[in-house]
Amino acid sequence: MTRLFNDPAAFADEALEGFAAAHRRWVRPVTGGVVRAAATPAGQVAVVIGGGSGHYPAFSGLVGRGLAHGAAVGNVFASPSAQQIRSVARAADGGAGVLLMYGNYAGDVLHFGQAAERLTADGVETVTYAVADDISSAAPGEAAKRRGIAGDLPVFKAAAVAAEQGLPLAQVASVARRAGERTRSFGIAFSGCTLPGADHPLFTVPEARMAVGLGIHGEPGIGEQSLPTADEAARLLVDTLLKELPVDVPAPGGQRAAVILNGLGSVKYEELFVVYRKVAALLEEAGVTVVDPEVGELVTSFDMAGVSLTLTWLDERLEELWRAPADTPAYRKGALGEPGPASEPAAPVRAAEETEQPAVPEASEASRQAATTVLAALAALAATVDAHEDELGRIDAVAGDGDHGIGMRRGSTAALRAARAAQERGAGAGTVLIHAADAWADRAGGTSGALWGTVLRAVGAALGDRDAPTAGRVAEGVAEASAAVRRLGGAEVGDKTMVDVLVPFADTLTAAVAAGAGLTGAWDRAAGAATEAAAATAALLPRKGRARPHAEKSLGTPDAGAHSLALITRAVHGALLDHPHDQY
Amino acid sequence: MTRLFNDPAAFADEALEGFAAAHRRWVRPVTGGVVRAAATPAGQVAVVIGGGSGHYPAFSGLVGRGLAHGAAVGNVFASPSAQQIRSVARAADGGAGVLLMYGNYAGDVLHFGQAAERLTADGVETVTYAVADDISSAAPGEAAKRRGIAGDLPVFKAAAVAAEQGLPLAQVASVARRAGERTRSFGIAFSGCTLPGADHPLFTVPEARMAVGLGIHGEPGIGEQSLPTADEAARLLVDTLLKELPVDVPAPGGQRAAVILNGLGSVKYEELFVVYRKVAALLEEAGVTVVDPEVGELVTSFDMAGVSLTLTWLDERLEELWRAPADTPAYRKGALGEPGPASEPAAPVRAAEETEQPAVPEASEASRQAATTVLAALAALAATVDAHEDELGRIDAVAGDGDHGIGMRRGSTAALRAARAAQERGAGAGTVLIHAADAWADRAGGTSGALWGTVLRAVGAALGDRDAPTAGRVAEGVAEASAAVRRLGGAEVGDKTMVDVLVPFADTLTAAVAAGAGLTGAWDRAAGAATEAAAATAALLPRKGRARPHAEKSLGTPDAGAHSLALITRAVHGALLDHPHDQY
Description:
The first copy, chain A, is built from 18 helices and 14 strands. Chain A is globular and about 75 Å long. Chain A has three domains: 1-131, 3-Layer(aba) Sandwich (Rossmann fold), CATH 3.40.50.10440; 180-325, Hypothetical Protein Tm841, Chain: A,domain 3, CATH 3.30.1180; 357-578, Serine Threonine Protein Phosphatase 5, Tetratricopeptide repeat, CATH 1.25.40.340. In chain A, the strands form three sheets. Chain A has a six-stranded mixed beta sheet, sandwiched between helices. In chain A, strands 9-8-7-12-10-11 form a six-stranded mixed beta sheet. A two-stranded antiparallel ribbon of chain A has the order 13-14. The first copy, chain A, has helices at residues 11-22, 82-92, 106-121, 152-164, 169-181, 230-243, 269-285, 316-323, 352-355, 365-387, 389-399, 404-424, 429-444, 446-463, 471-489, 499-514, 519-540, 560-578; strands spanning 27-30, 33-36, 46-53, 70-76, 98-103, 126-131, 183-191, 209-212, 223-226, 256-263, 289-296, 305-314, 326-327, 332-333. The first copy, chain A, is 47% helix and 14% strand. Chains A and B meet through helix 1, helix 6, helix 7, strand 11 and strand 14 of A and helix 1, helix 6, helix 7, strand 11 and strand 14 of B. Chains A, B: InterPro entries: DhaK_dom, DhaL_dom, DhaL_dom_sf, Dihydroxyacetone_Kinase. Chains A, B: This is Dihydroxyacetone kinase family protein. Chains A, B: Keywords: ATP-binding, Kinase, Nucleotide-binding, Transferase.
């Protein structure tokens, strides 16, 4: 378990601060993460990686010569926000474009995708690549749905060395794809980690049992077995990976492979070496030559007890890139010579939203009055999230990565703060919601941060700052939010995500308002529909200990996202009851 | 807990094999451990380090350019044997002598000391240095009694760089002493590790509590407190170290220090960074400039949850040595340039005892017959140790490092095997015991290995191979063993070690034999005295949860060593009853 922290909500920020203080020779902090201590040489593509905290050395520990130019660092187990990623990428950019690389998780895909759009709008040519190496997380036919685990390292490294060799962005991205296609990982786990401030581990594995194919946040695996010997574990890992070879590697034998035996946190070095002894022997038997093996902790999950094996099937070019030297806080290899004199460090690029106060357009008296109700609703929302944080994390850990409670709390707290600041500056109801939306997305990161930012923004846009909000306007905004979340997340009703709750909520609200109900009454009915839908969704979901053939994670936090939405609709109803407005 | 292993007794050997397979670029295996892949340049002092397994990267992970020339690798938490150390040192020797370095534990002190004597006899100039950085383990006035923990690294490194600079042995040793005198560590712990194959952790700390000053094997600390915040933990570590400065650093302020914040295994990287953030701030406040800090896992104890802070107070020379580059499996720093072409690897130096069958002098028929009784006694000894292995480990963990059960089993099993081989080759009783003694000391390592080797050797020497052993001869041998153990371990009755049991056992045996009792009857009486003495010693010892002002570890395994000796005397009595011989 995680024992040493101050305020759990500040954990990721404080860890990043300590990390940067300990590694000044390699990195400097910027808004949203870190970049190399020396500026990216002009004309060199910048490789910017990122993901949630709790996985060190991924991601900040991999910034330095021969590896990434920068890392966007999210909260614990939560994707960095698009704003953070953009800020780090701007600081790392050497004028030749940016390759954004990350593990293939819904939240990261959303935020890195949005960041790429914003960077392109900023005039920075940007390409994204999501590493998807975990073969247990989707069938070979759906390889694009796979999670990224310890295969991050060889893929990041290949692209970064190609960038340092001066290749243009398109070719650097092509190297990343080639490395990604030839990288496969498979893992086993024995126990989960307990996040800072949490009471319970994210997941548990029964004593003397082993979860097979478990994700690095405890996402479901493909089965459970009794605890193996070290040799049996090695055989399972090797055999599984040798069964699924890249298309241009028809059968094992005669190939060369980069090998990573990765400890997740509590399977310690000597244990890893005992396993590696057999891994090396089995690969040799299969005719596979091991090149520069790595045995250690390269992608962790706090003190989770687990181990994964990664193979990158090398061709001549990939071998050159894998063997190239690197000098980062957590990964050093070969001889790079002394670093040149550090370039004049560029001033950290601060996100516009953080340095400038966002604009507050003029608002009508009626809209300003309605803003107090919006504020009360956001306060009720934040209070209910706060009260249910642990519960949401636990529910999420059943099928997701356990970050839902943390992310929702950070997001809702930041949203309330931003809303209050806007309201004090005279903002109308629409602007209060839009400021809250941006703060939520930026501070929470993760899938839920992106989606809740979208929800609040849609409702805010519908309300505007001119007229007193009517029940009809609110219903329109909610309907628009429902459509936007479906578009952004690519999910529909039945996919076991918050969409399962948002759609009936929006539909019931619209119908009730159309039938002449006031906002408070209509909201009450809609909240009832939301609660029912959440219960129905929960019943569809697997329970701990039941293995599923493949992870079904489309919107990142199924069940937990549905559950929190239902709780929130009920809490907001309470706020509406307390703040009756004639116009509703 | 340690989950991935095959045969627990083979764990350390298999880990070493896997480690060497993964790091061929840096190291090559030799009997007893590893040395650098390239031979030590002629005329360069070789720095050979070592200790028990379970502490990776200590010790094998620290072999390579800029650090050690070789590492002797003991069993789990047990000192390597003198034979192993000698073998590694012979392989690492470049003709300019060897500096043996290790943490200050009774078993290591015994075995490295014996190895130095043998190396000197071999014609290899040898000096030893024990790192003793843990200020919680003895008062400032008794600093030589302190344990070695994470301060190993800066002291090893300083000496190794001095050796690479071409200094002669005496000056390299003087650098080690200077670095050691200026290195201080202090640690805290939250939970212990479970050794491979064991059912229970070596020690536990109550939930939400913290042990202060705990050793890396769970040896007693100086107190217990409630779980601190990360900032409070940082303050405790820094304040404690700033209270005890080296004599030539009168007050903190204006100095420069190397800083290591070391995780013991399960306090993970982000937690360490949160703590380091405050450590750095507090040192800055105190006017101490931090030089090349290290935050990570440098000396572990499997997955023990703990953290220690080490400061090395630098002068200009020590700073140069600390900042020098290094390239080892687990510790890489700065730029060393590509390694030169590897020298022709010297053939591993195999210990004479392992490559040649030890000699079996001619024996009388009577002595050969008595050898069957000796064999039965050794079999009973091994069986009782086997049956009590876990119990002995647990008892040892109260006040020692928990290795007693493992060490005793490895030793007694090896002794029985060697005795059987000798007996099959026609050895007499004396030679059977002497072969058993050497096998025990070599295979078990640790304090108990050295002491039991001494015990069996003394009895074997008294019995000889010519005459039928008499009760008087046996009593003489046991009396000589009692004296030899006191000499070697520097302990007397009352120091709460096996001496507390061995002395009354030997005295009672001698008295009973002198009074005319046969061996079996006399042994019975002596075993009774041993059992009583062990119980009395146990009553003197602290129990878990009771903090002691300072660790009282003179012979390494008080209580457990006394307890196992009493058990063994009783088991041997059973063997004597089953194998009556007229002459006894």
